[in-house]
Amino acid sequence: MRDHKGGGDQTLNTIRAGRHELNRLLDAMDTKGANNTVDREFVRWGYRQQSVMLELRHPGGSVVRLPVATRNLSNSGIGVLHSSFVHTGTMCVVGLEHQAMGQVEIIGKVMRCQHVGGTVHEIGIRFEQAIDTREYISLDLLSEAFSLERVAPEKLQGTLVYVDDSDLDLKLVEKLLEPTFMSVRCTKSPEEGIELAQRGCDLVLCDMHMGETTGVDLIEGLRGAGVRAPVLMVTADTSQNAKDVLRSGGADALVSKPLTSEKLLRAIAEFMIGGADAGPLMSTLSSSDPSSALVEAFVEGIPGQIEAIEKAIREEDAEGCRQICLNLAGSARPLGFEPIGEVASRIHEKLGQGAGLTIVRGELQELLKNCKRTRNGFTGVTEEATAEENSADEDGSPEGETAQGESPATPEGETPEGESPERPEGEAPEGEAGEPKADAA
After folding, report:
1. What SS3 class is residue 66?
2. pLDDT (0 to 100) of residue 365
3. CA-closest candidate to residue 365, choices 349, 347, 348, 341
4. Taking the alpha carbons of 154, 215, 275, 430 in that order, is the dihedral positive or negative?
């Protein structure tokens, strides 16, 4: 397990454990649970903080604020240690340090309380809304630190361009992605790969070494051609030197060889459904819309907007943040980026009414996530596509046939995306503070 240790010995918690005592206790707990095989959606990362603030909201209306030690963190919950029993179902608020926004309060519910020994109890808290753990702890995607522990293939939809000079590897990736709803475009030519990506794609997967061309060369060509889709590099070289080269070259993630279905699906899902995001965010305009010519410039300006928002948050500049949100709200909506425009408008309105940045932190997080998902492309239907669809309807498509790029209906008895299936009695739900998952990287 990868641990993120923090806190000083001078800061106490309810179990009165200093840093060294806490680490010894957690090491023993991790060793005891090393063979745990609970099936869960999100990876639990070691998150050893000596003290975070936990606010318990009891049914009678009383509120108690406690400094508690932490054990692990996932997208959907956190495990903490406390000196007494807490009833399941108790609502709570956890204060966590966001890497860009500072202290953030996250609402959750106690799902489990288990006695560890002495007065120590382990409390499992499920967050009301999933978070992106990468915003709270440093997880390196070049070390395959992907947040999803398991991925249902049918949840993966979109377009992937795969560039590799090996026929065998091209066939392998196509085979591994057959159970998904991904449209896979394969080529042995880096030049053709750039052309395919320019036509529109959600991800680019490429081999690190392709004859005289390297994966870093391909990234340079893609960016020069205006392709902003994430690039996942496939390589057998996982040395620190190789990671440094990929990092400086702009690779978004590394997928190590030999490729397996689980590894490849988790890597792709990190960008399509991981981190509680819904994948790339593109304009809902059609490419024939007169305003579509402005979309590329809007997308190119997004990194600067993200930097400006984060700077305003660090400097506690509420007025500066309000102005940025006003500009985003005015430009995002007409260009088909409604998720950005809608939340920017809400933030602008609240700040204009005198609310402080603390009140809108949750919305600022949502705005930053949406901005980071932004890609140059269109999801709107063109007049030509509408005409073709009408023509196909007149020809008579078989009833029930799913068009390419559309999601199939959820079969009866299966769990729809975004809902948690019922778990067998006795199994800990995701987000509870059970035994930790070994480092998935």
Report:
1. strand
2. 79
3. 347
4. positive
Q: Where are the beta strands (DSSP E) in 83-212?
A: 91-98, 102-117, 120-127, 157-163, 181-187, 203-207, 209-210
pLDDT at site 279: 63
pLDDT score of 70 more than 80: yes
Do the beta carbons of residue 371 and residue 337 sit within 8 Å? no
Q: Give the SS3 label for residue 153.
A: helix
Token pair recorded at residue 332: 């995002």
User: Count of CB atoms within 10 A of residue 135's CB?
Assistant: 17
Q: Which residues contact 101 (CB under 8 A, 6 or more apart)?
A: 310, 313, 361, 364, 365
Residue pair 46/3 in contact (Cβ under 8 Å)? The answer is yes
R_g over Cα of the chain:
24
Question: Which structure tokens are listed for 379?
Answer: 């999801």
pLDDT in tens, 8-32: 444 589 999 999 999 999 999 988 8
Rounded to the nearest 5 degrees, what angle is found at the Cα of 176, between the Cα atoms of 170 and 182? 90
The DSSP 8-state label assigned to residue 134 in this structure reads G
Task: Please tell me whether residue 302 adopts helix, strand or coil conformation.
Answer: helix
> What digits encode the pLDDT tens for the residues 86-144?
999 999 999 999 887 788 889 999 999 999 999 999 999 999 988 888 889 988 889 99
Instruction: Please give the biggest Cα pair distance in the chain.
Output: 76
- Structure tokens of 51? 């003290």
In this model, does residue 401 exceed pLDDT 80?
A: no
Domain boundaries, the chain: 3-135, 141-272, 281-378
Q: For residues 187 and 160, is the Cβ–Cβ distance under 8 A?
A: no
Q: Has residue 275 got a pLDDT over 50?
A: no
Beta strand spans in 137-208 (E): 157-163, 181-187, 203-207
141-272 CATH pick, 3.40.50.2300, 3.40.50.300, 3.30.70.20, 3.30.200.20: 3.40.50.2300
Q: What is the pTM of this model?
A: 0.62
CA-nearest of 89, 116, 94 to 434 is 116
| CA–CA dist 358, 93 (Å, integer) | 14
Could you tell me the two tokens for 224?
């020069």
| Token duo for residue 308 | 């400006």
3-135, CATH topology level: Thrombin, subunit H (2.40.10)
